[in-house]
Amino acid sequence: MNLQLQNKVIIVTGGAKGIGEAISTGLAAEGAIPVIFGRNAKENEETIEKIKSNGGNGYHYRVELSNPVECKEAVESLIKDMGRIDGVVNNAGVNDGVSLENGSYESFMSSLYKNLIHYYLVVHHALPELKKSKGAILNITSKTAETGQGGTSAYAAANGGRNALTREWAVELLKYQIRVNAIVVSECFTPMYASWIKKFSNPEEKLAAITSKIPFQNRMTKASEIADMAIFLLSEKSGHTTGQLIHVDGGYVHLDRALVNS
After folding, report:
1. Does residue 252 belong to any structural domain of this protein?
2. Model pLDDT, residue 186
3. 130 with 19, same domain?
4. What are 81-126's pLDDT values in tens digits?
5. Does residue 3 lie in a domain region?
6. Count of structural domains, the chain
7. Which of 75-79, 187-191, 215-219 bottoms out in mean pLDDT, i.e. has the lowest?
């Protein structure tokens, strides 16, 4: 299927690892030009080299997304270097465990900058170019905003904000024919998830307990499956889809758990 993404310049925040890497490489395979925004220049470069070795093209900018000045400068540099922006994938973030009981004002606000504020800032600075290209915006969000998790107030709040911004921007940007959607992620085995599961005294048992509760096939969602949906939502094949929170999660959030293994 030709998704008509050839030579489209698309920002992917946190695009060098996990879900972001899957989206970056998937976009490149469709002929788009992913532009990774991430703090680790070495990881950025490795992903771009992998893309190029497979015949694709891509670029990266080292940027600390929790720093508003660096967000602005990275977008400005991209516009100067490439002259256009056709899409933005807001993906970077971390479930940092800032809780209500043991958190603090400082840690809560720091988490919002790591997980929500840059979603606004990157799109805000990219918007003039998105208006020209009638581009698309995609926000990667987490089930924590809908289900809760316990012990992660700031991350849950950030994801609630991501969901709300998706709907708000979809309304505000109708007049520019810019589509805005979100993918809600539940259980996806990324390097970050692997690090989290290792913190338990019985990581293999913990992982098995989680996957047993995922209704469809009792398995984790693959990063490539989230990337496939992301690429579709960025393409003209989803040309009348906007304001949607799409769950790519094997039914984890919405299906009755009583059905699992029944």
Report:
1. no
2. 93
3. yes
4. 999 999 999 999 999 999 999 999 999 999 999 999 999 999 999 9
5. no
6. 2
7. 187-191
Six-digit token pair at 163? 């969901």
Q: pTM for this structure?
A: 0.94
Whether residues 120 and 60 fall in one domain = yes
Measured distance CA(45)–CA(81) in Å, rounded: 17
Residue numbers of the domain that contains 212: 189-220
Q: What is the pLDDT of residue 9?
A: 98
Instruction: Report the CATH number at residue 25.
Output: 3.40.50.720
Q: Tokens representing 256? A: 């009755």
Question: Do 80 and 121 lie in a common domain?
Answer: yes
Q: Decide if pLDDT at 76 tops 80.
A: yes
Whether 155 is catalytic is: yes
236-240 contacts, C-beta under 8 A, 24 or more apart: 236/3, 236/4, 237/1, 237/3, 237/4, 238/179, 238/181, 239/179
| Six token digits for residue 76 | 């400005």
Residue 261 covered by a domain: no
Adjacency order of strands within the sheet including 59-62: 59-62, 33-38, 9-13, 87-90, 136-142, 179-185, 245-248
**Catalytic residue chosen out of the listed positions 105, 119, 120, 155:** 155
